[in-house]
Amino acid sequence: DGIDDASFTRLFKTIISKVVEIYQPGAIVLQCGADSLAGDRLGCFNLSIDGHAECVRIVKKFNLPLLVTGGGGYTKENVARCWTFETGVLLESELPNEIPDNEYIKYFAPDYSLKIPHWHIENLNSKSYVGTIKMQVLENLRNIQHAPSVQMQEVPPDFYIPDFDEDKQNPDERVDQHTQDKHIQRDDEYYDGDNDNDHNMEDA
Q1: How many CB atoms lie within 10 A of CB 7?
Q2: Phi, psi torsion values for 147, nearest 5 degrees
């Protein structure tokens, strides 16, 4: 509870850098949940919008294809502030702190500003505790030997439906469902012989 910008972004940068090194992703999907902002109705962190956006900057610097989505956040005016500010970060466009007049401006009273102030919440995360978390995560990542990859595999045998000769089929033997399904004929399909729809149309 109460983690601040400095503690959070330092931890985030160290861990996400190692994650990218180990996994070697071809693209990143970054979910920017805003419930870690100070003053969130349900969250218990104490991040400013600047601190939250710094994590976006860190990921953006990897220069990988990046899809950024929303997520949690239960103080709606701060969620709107956060995602507006971070859209500016992604587009490398600096936005003014003063929110322009709009039909929702009343939600941003009394200061009508884009950024939110820090709350006076005690940071319950000591340096040693944060250090322990970092070491545990890095140790877990070290146990991952290789970056994941997509491998070519044969089609599983469950999808294979063998052909069979109906004339040779013993009527006393049960036919499995796959085999029965293979011989279902739809009226709108094309067949050789008398069942062909085109053939019937030509005869008409």
Answers
A1: 20
A2: -70, 140
* Cα–Cα distances in angstroms (integers) from residue 153 to residues 7, 9, 25, 150, 157, in the given order: 44, 41, 21, 9, 12
Q: Please give the Cα distance from 190 to 196 (Å, whole number).
A: 5
Residue showing tokens 């861990």 = 15
Domain ranges (residues) in the chain? 5-143
Ranges 15-24, 152-161, 168-177: which has the least confidence: 152-161
Positive/negative CA dihedral, 105, 107, 108, 111:
positive
Domain 5-143: CATH superfamily is: Histone deacetylase domain (3.40.800.20)
Q: For 99-132, what is each residue's pLDDT tens digit?
A: 999 999 999 999 999 998 778 899 999 999 999 9
| Nearest-angstrom CA–CA distance, 115 and 82 | 8
